[in-house]
UniProtKB/TrEMBL annotation, chain A:
Keywords: ATP-binding, Cell membrane, Membrane, Nucleotide-binding, Transport. SMART domains: AAA. One of its GO terms (biological process) is peptide transport. It is a peripheral membrane protein. Its main location: membrane. PROSITE patterns: ABC_TRANSPORTER_1 (PS00211), ABC_TRANSPORTER_2 (PS50893). It comes from Nonomuraea phyllanthi. This is ATP-binding cassette domain-containing protein.
From TrEMBL, chain B:
GO terms for molecular function: ATP binding; ATP hydrolysis activity. NCBIfam families: oligo_HPY, PRK11308.1. This is Dipeptide ABC transporter ATP-binding protein. It comes from the Bacteria.
UniProtKB/TrEMBL annotation, chain C:
It comes from Nonomuraea phyllanthi. It is a multi-pass membrane protein. InterPro entries: BP-dependent_transpt_permease (IPR050366), MetI-like (IPR000515), MetI-like_sf (IPR035906). It comes from the Bacteria. It is found in: Cell membrane. One of its GO terms (cellular component) is plasma membrane. The chain crosses the membrane at residues 49-70, 119-144, 164-191, 236-263, 283-307. SUPFAM superfamilies: MetI-like. This is ABC transporter permease subunit.
Amino acid sequence: MDNPLLSVQDLTVRFRTRAGTVTAVDQVSFDLAEGETLAILGETGSGKSVTAQALMGLVPRPAGQVSGGRILYDGTDLLARPRSETRRLNGTELAMVFQDPLSSLNPVFRVGAQIGELFRRRRGASRSEARRKAIELMDRVGIPAAARRVDDYPHQFSGGMRQRVMIAMAIALQPRVLIADEPTTALDVTVQAQVMALLAELKAEHRMAMILISHDLGVVAGVADRVMLMYAGRVAETGGLREVYETTGHPYTRGLMASIPALDGPRERLAPIKGSPPDLMRPPAGCAFRPRCEFATGICGTERPELMPVPARPESHRAACHHAKEVVADVVPG
Amino acid sequence: MSSPADPLLSVRDLHTGFPIRSALLRRKVGTVQAVSGVSFDLPAGRTLGLVGESGSGKTTLARTVIGLAPPESGQVLFDGRDLLTLPGADLRQARRQMQMVFQDPYASLNPRLTVEQIISEAWLVNPGVVPRNRWATEVKDLLARVGLNPDHADRYPHQFSGGQRQRVGIARALALRPRLVICDEAVSALDVSVQAQVLNLLVDLQAELGLSFLFIAHDLSVVRHISDEVAVMYLGKVVETGTTEQIFTAPVHPYTQALLSAVPVPRPWAAPQRKQILLTGDIPSPVSPPSGCRFRTRCWKAQERCATEEPALADRLGGHSSACHFPEMTVPA
Amino acid sequence: MDRPTEQVLPQSAGEAADDPIGPAGDLPPDDAGRPTAGRTRGKIGQVRIIASLSVIALYVVAAVVGPILLKYDPVATDLGSRLKPPGTLLPGGHTAVFGTDQVGQDVLAQMMQGARVSITVGVATLVLAGVIGVTTGIAAGYFGGWLDAVLMRLADVQLTFPSILLAIFVASILGPSVGNVVIVLAISNWVTFARVTRSQVLGLKNRDFVDATRTLGARTWHLVTRSILPSMMAPILVVATVELGHVVLAEASLSFLGLGTPASTPSWGMTIANGRNYLSNAWWISTIPGIGLAILVISFGVLGDALRDRFDPRLRSM
């Protein structure tokens, strides 16, 4: 990518715990172009959410610490700036939607006031103007009867409507990058479809770049341009959505795909990944996925694989696997 | 004893509600009708998938069947005997054959007990099932059966991962050698790779032990994978029920169609004919459900008749039961 | 008015909530990924527990061993050595470390004898109040409904009734005795146990693991004794520790007012009361037992706080 809007280079985040230090994010690098949607996928403990927290300057201190790397936004390193300045960027340049909208909204303030507050504090808008803007935004994100509901409290909204409120707040100041951390995980499937459709619409409308963090390979398939799979704090595979999903280059990605029961076709026995994710306190030597991998050979136990180009589309599709070629050649599991 | 054709579990017109009380005088001011008039049959050795979103009443239904929530009316027939009228001793005997696997592997295991104590608690409260000197051996057998290391019997729940804890929960449910296991979102909290392991385990256990499953989930792919028959719930009622094949390939109720269309699939480009129906709004409150058809407030086909006349669950189209005045095989473009 | 124990206390800290890597799921077992921002705080907590326990142990040892080494006879008088300041060598050959009182008794000997009374009364009261309170709390919380309403209104009435008034009432009917002091104090302290127990039961009774045991066919007795009670022992112990300090203080107050233990079993309150007429010329008779009492009560307070932080930091509002 020539001139990415956001460029993360060798990001490393560590957590100190009672039992030792955990490297939650380990030398993660990726770029995000203007208007592009990147999905970061992974299971619990993969480091996907911590990556998002690092981007927003929200890594919980003092336990967690960004211990290396750079986050270049428009060419300047966000990590080198003081926190106060990162805060100023939040909202106008980068904005975030969280998994649980109820705990992200202040329960004692009216929803409209919380949205309007952004305009009052950041744009110096008057009270009535802020209110008008809040109604406009609530209307835009599909909250029915926005003019009436603007004075309701968060608990008076359903889960899906609260997530719409969160999205309204996130896009209020027209950020250039929207980070959505599991935005639909707490929602029902029909509401999830509504929210994902809204995000896709907004992205097209504002030419916003988006980072979509999810554990669900299906949810992101309708929106993402590129995907990045994380495993045990590292990037396992990254590339265009269809490249990764169809010519999978990493056994982990393949295992995940095989673990999802199909919605059509014959019902076959699932082929899950064996074992469970590694203890990050004592990561295995070499490739972290080796103990669960059916392709593993001697080299996997000694040498940690770096991201390497996957043959079919070497310019964009990369996988961190010594046996990527074999994985691609043997796409159908079994 | 029942012949294979008889249902192991039969639910008839079950109603379960929770009183809403006023803050001041604790007077009953209304009822949340979580389950209102549900009927279904579960044949022995089969799996019935119960699908619905939050607020559909599927979890309350499960809790009523297992005896954790008191029903208002209806029948829960287990092996032909109504659990709601059965006298104490017989009831305990019947309930023993019906166990449950809970959703949250973190909350459903007592953190103060070892795995062995958790599993053998079943025998402690039901004396005579397994003699005490056999407990340790039986626990090890059960752990091995659910794919855990039998030597870990003396460990505490916090020493296991989420997937392993769920296996402990399954082992506990099997301890009383039940005939029916109710899985209430039993794999929902697990990561997808681990979820697949647990699903395979459930399938194996069913084959080995001849178990019947009442499998409750919001994830349609999972339900399709494991169920022989499926019932779709909306706001306390079953709106459509049939074989898995019928429900997933030829749904006729608009809610089932919308639900299916909303499931995110990993390769949308592989099914270009798949159209997404975006429902408007949210599921209404069960405190004051809509008149007539409960789905009409979100339905694109709703007409006047839907507001006045409640559609009965009957075979209207496609050889299976649905509750819609205007059933159609095809989804509107 | 502040009624913090009414809130439903959150259960067992930890589990998924404080896992920085992500939401609950298949994280590696054990403590992996649990932050320890509180490592230094934990160490301070350790120090608090050890220090307060040491002080309390010192009092217990003094109460058990002291009266054997330094005989105290409540009816003896020695007018020749009355009102001697701390450190005086008495004619009997030993030094009165804390001085002597108005009838020539050694204050230290009195205090050690008094410690026996105070600690016995304190522990007996707590056991009685704890049994009444925990039983009431379980009944109210588990069964709910009218039983809950009746029991908790009873508790409210109890709280509004001054314990001193109750003590006067009981003492005037039954006369002062150690047993009566225990009864009076238990009556005025069971409510705290009941409140905490009830809120714990409310939070626990429908937790998944209790429901799981219920579906195994467990009866109420099994659920209460095996599933619910063990899970709330920690908060109850914390309450007990804090209350112990209160009870010791309350016993001293009653004795100070002459409503507590009879003159033949001298408690700290009585020694302090006896010395108050001599404050101008013999300050030590009241002051030194007073300081001794304060140190013990504070130690219980510190221990209670430290235990509470350790078992469940979310109990802090108590």
